[in-house]
Write the structure tokens for this entry.
Amino acid sequence: MAKKSNSEAVLPTLEKTPTGIQGLDEITSGGLPKGRTTLIYGSAGSGKTLIGLEFLVRGAIQYNEPGMFMSFEETEGELTTNVGSLGFDLKSLIDSKKLLIDQVSVERSEIEETGEYDLEGLFVRLGCAIDSIKAKRVVLDTIEVLYAGLTNTGIVRAELRRLFRWLKDKGVTTIVTGERGGETTLTRHGLEEYVSDCVIFLDNRINQELSTRRLRIVKYRGSAHSTNEFPFIIDANGISILPVTTVKLDYPASNERIPTGVPRLDTMLDGKGYIKGSAILVSGMVGTGKTSLAASLIEAGCRRGQRCLYLAFEEAPSQIIRNMQSIGINLEPWVKKELLHFDARRVSEQGLEKHLLSMEQAVIKSQPEIVVIDAVTDFTNMGSLIETRHMVLRMIDFFKMREITVLCTSMSTRAELEETGVGLSSAFDTWIHLTNVQSNLERNRTLVVVKSRGMAHSNQVREFVLTDKGVQLVDIYASPAGAFMGSARMAQMAADEADAITRQQRIEGKRRAVEEKRRALEARIEAMRAEFDSETKETELIIDQEEKAKKALKKERNGIEKQRKANGCK
Amino acid sequence: MSTKAHPHYGDTNGVKEWNLRLFVTDWTPRCVIAYKNLNRICEERLKDRCTIEVIDLLEKPEMARQEQIVAIPTLVKTSPKPEKVIIGDFSNEDRVLKALGFEPARPK
């Protein structure tokens, strides 16, 4: 045994024999006291015989410890048949000398007591059986029958005391079963008087008209143990006790992705969607669209040919199909193709552990890759918060071990994020929270990925719109005036657009005015140039005329002179 | 004890032969007492008409399971039928005789 602290390293620790029974070794911190006797008592039908048999079967198969079952009530044939449905093949274990069943019949009417006797015959039988298969484990079921078969209770009492001491000396780990007793004793004949190392109580109690099996460790000398009551179930795998501690953290971790059925949500989740085999929590108040998101996942899964299972606890399948059809998610064809299975039941129909059982059976029957549980919070009505937690954790455990992607919807009664998810959020890998935001006389849905393990997910709040083409995510409209969604988003978008148009028109107007001005200016320049041109031409004309006039005058003067022959004229 | 007819149990319905098997675990004091008591009863009541086979379970432990033995000493009357199991040290002779099939004597 592992050394946990210095004090434990010095003190001898109690050696334990693991039972192999799911959950029992966890709550007993390792199993039953090795080489000692454990008393298991309870009323008729509480599962005593089964726990004893499973202890031997698991011991033989998992721990290679042969076991001996001494039955005072049922015959070997009856026992074999009774546990055959649990997958225990007693016959092959008996044939391979891993198990020995000895049925002791003590019938008062057939026995004549004629004086003093002892129970040495029983000792011989036990000793012979233990030696013949080298048994390490012994179950005596139910030894109290001796009190009914023999009249001399004084002898029986003394012999039982001797028997338990003898078993201890033999070093075999023993379970002795007993009927629940009256007020003064735990068992009918006070067996607890001789068995003082470990006492376990099995109860089959009716609570809110539902029967629940429970197990409690009354006493465990020299060992830490859980003092709580633990619900347990008897199913196809034998006994399962349901404590949180059974949640094994060794699931196969997949890198495969499963699209969500909402493309924009895939984008938010690293662009790929959920991780295969992960647990997804979709929380939100009533009417936030949880079922729609679940149905989107299923519809997309069926399209890819994946088998899906819808566990409905609120609505009938026909109602879900109809409602989803109204938002363009058509589930019916997949039901017909037997890809999608519905399993609808009222939560109040049965106890929590029965629900687990029927869930397991539904999963085994339909072999799904994707499971939707709508809604996981319904179970809170069934038991205490802690029981619900245990149940949900075990359920997730179950799905994860099988690499089934499970989406649980969770109805929150308050808008605060912390109030959602039955305090279970840590068990889920991806948590999507849906809210209803009320403003401007309308309610709008929003979606945010609170967490998603193993991927870089978006932290943005998106508007979640249910259209007749399924679920769509829309960016929330951010403008200088704030963030808007719903009709406010549209109004703001329209207003902003109008603004833009006006501005554009104003710019264009200005541009036109300038253009006109420019054109006017150019026209004036043109006119002035024309005027200047004409003036220039006029001036040139005048100059020309003057020139011509000047020439003409000169010519005229020359002519006169000639005529006058004036001045040295020859 | 006299050799006269037993005061309470008389007739044996004309049975000629008794086959008895006595199971012991070694010769413990109780087994010795039982054997002596049984022998005396047989001597007195079933002289020459009874066979007692003594089986020591410490030598043949597997017999305990086969013969459904719980208490020691155990006497099994294999014949005449019906088979009967008698346990104890046979100190209560009335009960031994009743179990061996003696008819209760009619009060005179």
